[in-house]
Structure formats: structure tokens, C-alpha cells
Amino acid sequence: MFNKLIIACFFLTAFGSCCHKKGCIDETRVDLISFKNFEKSETDTLRFTGYSQGSDFSARTDSFVVYYDSLRVVQGMDGLNYQVQMNIGFDWEVRLSGNNTVYRINDFVLKEKLCNRCITGNSYYTSLESYKVNGKIIPANYLIIEK
Questions:
Q1: What is the DSSP track for 16-32?
Q2: DSSP character at residue 91
Q3: C-beta of residue 70 within 8 angstroms of C-beta of residue 83
Q4: What integer is the mean pLDDT of 127-131?
Q5: What is the pTM of this model?
Q6: How many CA atoms does the CB half-sphere of 20 hold within 13 Å?
Q7: What is the tens place of the pLDDT at every residue in 40-53?
């Protein structure tokens, strides 16, 4: 009986350790937002306000301000990329100080995807599939606001 237990533990350890574990990161927080076709002067101060999902932007839950900083803002292929910390469990309003325009971001669509397949059990991660900006569906896994 003891020998069978040792053999079973050996096989579980052997098969469990043979699985290649890759690091997969859930996308339930966004750390970058891109502003396409905007001038720096339009995005020098960004006011983010979070609201409870489905509240029609009436139940405020969070807010923060991001100022233009050459160390935190990078000119990328998709425009000016700002480092932020946004929980996509909220709906968001982004107000641009340069032209006082408001962009509403909501209806985040998340999908669970396979990260690691293993005989002892699979692991999954959450991926952002799409969202809406002012009612327009954006099929992307990162946040982009286009002028």
C-alpha cells in the first residue's frame, strides 16, 4: 500500500513538473492609454473619473488626474501613450483640458483564454477583447482614443 502511494506521488510530481509554465497577465487593469491624432497641448492634463458599471455615469467611484510628463508619456505608433492605472471594472470618463472634450469609455468585453495546458490542470487569464468610446465599439486589447 505504501509503495503504491509513493509511486502515485512520483507520477503526479513528474507529470506536474513537466508542464511548461508561461506567465500570463490578467488584463483587468489597464496601465496604458493612447491618444491618436492629438496634439500634446490637448492632452497636457487628463482628468479620469470612474463610475460604477451600468450606472450611466452617475455613481462616481474613483478619480485621478494625469499631467503631461516627458518621462511618462511616449510618442508611439498609435499616438501619445500615457501611463495610467485604470480598473476596467468601472466605466470611465476622460476629460481633456486642452479642448474640454469628454470621452466616455465603457462596456468592456473580457474573455477567458488558456494560458497553460497541463495534465494536472489548465490555467487561464482574462483578456480585454473590446470596449466602447462614446458609443463606438473599439475591438482592441488596449485603450485608444482617436480624435
A1: HHTS--------SEEEE
A2: E
A3: no
A4: 91
A5: 0.77
A6: 2
A7: 889 989 999 999 99
